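User: My collaborator and I are trying to settle a disagreement about how two of our proteins should look. Neither of us wants to argue from intuition anymore, so we agreed to look at predicted structures for both before our next call. Could you fold the first one, then the second, and keep them clearly separated?

Assistant: That sounds like a sensible way to settle it. I'll keep them separate. The first protein:
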Amino acid sequence: MEMVIGLTAVGVIALIAIVMIANSRVKLRDGRRLSDMNQLRQALLLFSERDSERGLLTMDCLKNMPVAVSSCTGSALAGLKDFMPGIQYLNDPLAKTICSAQLNQNLPGQACQPCNYSFVSAEDSGSYAVAFCLEKGTEDFSKGLHYLTENGLR
């Protein structure tokens, strides 16, 4: 009987540990996503200031949105690489599917299917937005689909 109680206690402790580790991984992935978006925002701002006459939307890869941020390559992206080396490796830590309206037809705060960081057309202007999904959310951002725009994260 004592052995059963002991094994049950060990099982309960192991289950709690597994749940805590899983939640920690989700929080770490969401933290990385927000960090990536803040770095990308800084790079895009610096790129826009330096190349204001051409603008970001002249990049060939943005003519076929939605498109993964990491797949934007070529001479247009070379200028952006000055401010964010390794941008060609900038991917969501979990997903490789491009974020699109068809993939995530929901509002911020609702669960979304994890998707790779993607340039999408901004709804409120002729500019860009970068779509990304938070699995669990943070204190400042709810779970769900969010966008990086010229005005920041929303």
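The second protein, kept apart from the first:
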Amino acid sequence: MKSSLLPCLIGLSLLLLTSCLVIPPEGGAPSYQPPYRDLAYDLEVTLRELYQSSKSELTNPTSSDRRLLEDLYNLWQESEDLQGYFRFYSSNEERADTLINRMLYQAENIDRGFRYGSSLRTLRREWDESFSLLKGIASFIVGEVVLRLTEEADLLYSRLKDMAAGGDEQETEAIDSLYQFWSLGRDIDLYLGATYFNKSRLLQMVDRLQYRAEHTDRQLDRLPYYPSLAEGWEQCLELTERLKDKAERLYGYRREYAAPVEKEKKKVANIKPVGYLDTATSQEVTGWAFDEDAGTEPIEVHIYIDDKHLATLTANIRRDDLVGKVKVLKDPLHGFRWTPPSLSPGRHTVKVYAINVPPGENILIGERVIFIPPSFWE
């Protein structure tokens, strides 16, 4: 009896084995068929049936109904593309992950339509099934990496505990850090199956795992027997990096590409300088000038006599009397003093301009008339 059953059992085993293999159409070695390929097939079937039901359900569709139906159709078509990628996932991994990312964001918009703003709320249960399948595919893909990571970390943790016979401070810190690394990986694995799943929360958990990996790397590197642990730990680091890339491709926010547009530079208002011409005589010309755009730096003043430019000064003389009286001044070094040349008898007009910073309109801060009496003639 046993001998007659043996060929049947062998045949059944071969049938199960070949059902998990995909033979590329052009030949080559068979590849392992991932379980989420079946989920993608189920997703396409449920979305197709949901789209057809929704289309027949709507007799007088509103604009929001038509928009929801269009989104649902697009999601269905993308589920067909996803099946094609999953046939040879190893060579289409990045494209498949990017497509799932887009489908998840589309599905979130559709979900809001089914729940709140559409006449199709009666089909919400069917939609929930489709949405759960899509989220399950993404969770399963990430979960594969997490499972490998936690297994490697668990094996390494056991080896480290066996090797750390002395129990000194460095060994204790390394063991504790590696345990926390494994624990964070386990938490991610558990969170992937949570009812109230949040993508941002998962990405934060992955970031914390990577930070812990960097810290653990420094702790392990100090151990004298680190070379014997290096191979296993390098595998953990590689899987951590793979997990981060995978999570960001699947759950990270992605905008549609748009050609960069050069932004116009904002025009900053040019504040006009201020100042005052205090005195203008044949002996001296004094005053002060300040520009807020220059900060505490002194600015230049130009002095004209009878419309002829005779002097360029830097207003940097100390004027303690101005601080507190002139609101915009923060320090006293903004005064100027100039001794004019000998002038001929008669009337002479003195004008002083504060020079704008940055270049702009120069401001007349004072105008005086000097009279030279005839007694000065020689």
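Some points you might bring to the call about the second protein. Helices lie at 2-19, 36-57, 63-87, 89-117, 124-163, 169-191, 199-221, 230-251. The chain has two domains: 21-257, 274-376.
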